[in-house]
Amino acid sequence: MLLVYILIVAATAVCAFQAIRANRMLVSAIWLAGTSALVALMIYLIGAPEVAVVELSVGAGLVTVLFVFAINIAGEETYTTPSRLPRPLAWGMVVLSVVLLGWFFLSRTAMPEAIAAPNLSLYEAIWQQRNLDILLQVALIFCGVLGAIGLLSEDKPIEEHPAEVKS
Amino acid sequence: MTLELWNVGLVTILVLLGVGFYGLLISRNLIKMVVALQILAKGAILAMVLAAKLQGWTVIGQSMALTVIVADTIVAVIAMAMAVQIRRHCGTLDVQSLSNLRR
Question: Could you tell me which of A21, A37, A20, A33 has the C-alpha nearest to residue A68?
Answer without folding.
Answer: A33
